[in-house]
Known about the structure:
The complex is a heterodimer.
Chain A: H1 2-37, E1 40-46, H2 61-70, E2 72-78, H3 84-94, E3 100-102, H4 107-112, H5 120-126, H6 128-133, H7 136-142, E4 168-171, H8 172-177, H9 186-199, E5 202-203, E6 206-207, E7 209-213, H10 221-229, E8 239-241, E9 246-248, H11 254-268, H12 281-289, E10 293-297, H13 304-312, E11 320-323, E12 348-349, H14 356-365, H15 369-376, E13 385-386, E14 392-393, H16 396-403, H17 405-411, H18 438-443, H19 447-455, H20 488-510, H21 517-531, H22 534-553
Parallel strand pairs in A: 1-2, 1-3, 7-10
Antiparallel strand pairs in A: 3-12, 4-10, 4-11, 5-6, 8-9, 13-14
Helix pairs in contact in A: 12-13, 20-21
Chain B: H1 2-10, H2 13-19, H3 21-39, E1 50-51, H4 57-60, E2 62-63, H5 67-73, H6 76-109, H7 113-124, H8 131-141, H9 148-155, H10 169-197, H11 201-209, H12 214-238, H13 246-252, H14 258-261, H15 264-271, H16 278-311
Antiparallel strand pairs in B: 1-2
Helix pairs in contact in B: 5-16, 6-10, 7-10, 8-13, 10-12, 12-16, 15-16
Amino acid sequence: MRLYKRISLAVLVVFVIAILLGSFAPVKSNKAEAASKKVVTFTMFSADATVQYHPDIFSTAIGQEIAKKTGVRLKIEHFVGMDQATKVSLMLASGDLPDLVYGSGEHKQFIQNKVLVPLEGYIQKYGTWTKKAYSEADLKKLRQADGHIYFLSYSRGEVSPSASGEGLWIMIDMLKKNNWPRLKYWEDLVPMLRDYVKKYPKYKGMPVIGMSAITEGARFYVIQDPATGLNGLIADTVQFDPKTYTASYDPAGIGMYKAYRALNQLWNEGLFDKEAFVQTYDQWQAKVAQGRVVTSWGRSWHYNNAFNTLRKNGEDDRILVPFGIVFKGVKKSRYIMLSSIGTRDGVSITKKCKDPVTAFKFLDSLLNPDIQKLMFWGIKGKDYLVDNKGKMYRTQAMIDKARDPVYQKQEGLGYWNIYPRWQLKLPDGNYVKPELDPDIAYMQWAPAQKQVLDAYKAKTFVEPPFADEPEMPKWGFAWEINVPPEKQKDIQVPLNIANDLARKYIPLLIMAPKGKYDEVWNKYKAEVRQKINAKVIADFYTEELRKRMEDWYGIKIK
Amino acid sequence: MESAIYYTSKKTFWQKVKEQKELVFMIFPFVLYVILFHYIPLWWWVIAFKEYRPYDGVWGSQWVGLQQFRDLFSDSGFWLAMRNTIVISFLKLVTSFAAAITLALMLNEVKNMLFKRTIQTISYLPHFVSWVVAASIVIGALAPESGVVNQVLMALKIIKQPVVWMGEGHYFWWILAISNVWKETGWNAIVYLAAMTSIDPELYDAASVDGCGRLQKIRYVTLPGIAPTISMLLILNVGWLLNAGFEQVLLLRNPLVQDYAQILDTYVLDYGITMYRYSYATAAGMFKSIVSILLVLFANKVAQKLNASTVV
């Protein structure tokens, strides 16, 4: 018995020591490390879902360099999953906020719930670089409804020459086999598509799909694009008439009728993907990557993985390129629109942050051109070179390396999109990002993509014949307007109901059997008219957009 | 009975606590758990009667009386969700009970231990797979072109063209029920198998002597033997009747079946939490809890009645 007690005592002692060591030792070493370098660590939440997140960006070569120069390290928690709104909603309800926050599409909720620190005072006091990188007009636009600035937008309304464009995406192989036609009208595209699928019904033993689309979950907006895109409208909550300065809202408008009837015809011919409405995003990506989707609806960033796979497999002529397809009679395609500055989101400091001054100084120091180069170009000599005129450039080998996801992850390249940045060029005349440089932009395309550009005598995919000249709506976008909480019930709830109705009826419209289309459409229209008061919504946006014209440009509309 | 009265009258409460301090000590964390996670949150029900905004705090938010409930009951979407919830969980309840009992009865008849164990292990394995994985297996299996279900049915010449299983509302209810059976039957059968082992073997011998065959033994010995277990589980499950399986529905639904897939939990998520209408979400959740309590009480009453009749 005594022996047993002794053994158990020994075990207990060992346990206690282990626990003490385990819990204290790493903290000590951390502190020592922090003290020697004087690096402050801030916590951050990022809802950015456009890049594969990095587990610890500040441990990469670029991240370490930035931490050394700014004295700040971020410990970033990334959003995972599909539904940002749920995550942000629960975060706000719990009150458990990090020091810095980036809410992406849900960023407005942080503003409306008054948990962010206004920045305009700090900009005045410490914003050395901010004042250089953002003009007075820019800052004016960043003022929210309550008159405060909460973030420095990263989106600056440039058309990137390396952007893969927007529109209806069409497979290169079909263009090649038709001798590079100039496509603009839906009516010209459809016969071509019909012939192509008839002639080449299989690719590598699998059926070829005439037209596909993403419809899963939050990405459902993609299948709403035809309604606006084909009719030459912008993809926004409301349409704004620049002559009368009034917004109009109609979830069952005449343009929609026409667009889905067109898709319905494809469906009944067997050209539209039979699985379109039951497939997941991954399944759609897989089909594109198998090279058997001839045309598809989707936004440029949805295609990245699939195109990389095709390129790796040497099937780059199965890649899709965008065309601003519209109905005959429509003058201009408006798939690509520019915002002078994104007024919706950016990195903000929360009221939970114990040292907002340091946090702001960090954001400001990111605008230092040296750090901007680190963030977007990488490390000198390794990721870019400088010629004797001071121009930054990349060799083909560097461009290829920068496209490799493994290298990106290890270097820390391509993870800095949401942070404040300069517009187009740095003060020394170099482009902020390598992608903005037209020479580098051209070099990054796959051989077949270069072939397309050469065939159409174009330099980029964001110019004719792929897209019409991009416009910049002076009033910005209605989808960037934050609906105040007290209007939630009158505006946001009906908008969500309208979205749910669209979710229900767009598939039914497209899949309607021959001759049944009008019946489904009438049902949809009746339900929309009964459930949604469009006038209240239109009036709200009219008022908000007019207010913007006044706040931003001093143009008063009565 | 007598001894219990004697016992309590002799010792005070605190004496008893002292005497059974080990037991009290053991139960303590669980009582604490229930208080922390089940009773304290009830306090938050107060926000169902307010227009709650996080920055105003619970007390700073405005009282709105029964407005949230009025909104809730006047929304046709809510009643649709209610219908779907009840239908889906009723389907799931019936199918999972029937399947689990059948499987348990069948396994009980198997005499080869190796075979029995193998089947049991295989059948309860899916229980340990999360719905995230299970849902993609289900969606993959039911895919029109590449899915195994369509391929098998086509090969057997049962159907001519691939069926878009996930695209039809009324299929969706059965897909939920059947995928739930696939995932949980093996696991649910365990408790019945356990109940069966406690049946006195002499009863079977007696039944044999009386000339019972296999099926008759199941009918007259096994089933009555596990009847108390069945009724108890049924009562317990009725309390969950308004929980139609949040994760499963969330992961399996798609726009085509929205009218059949919207259940109370997804409704709370879609029209409450993701729209930052915390009060509305709470009102819906509160309604659900109250109905659940009523259902349990009702089921309990029914069971008492039935028990009373069987005893006499």
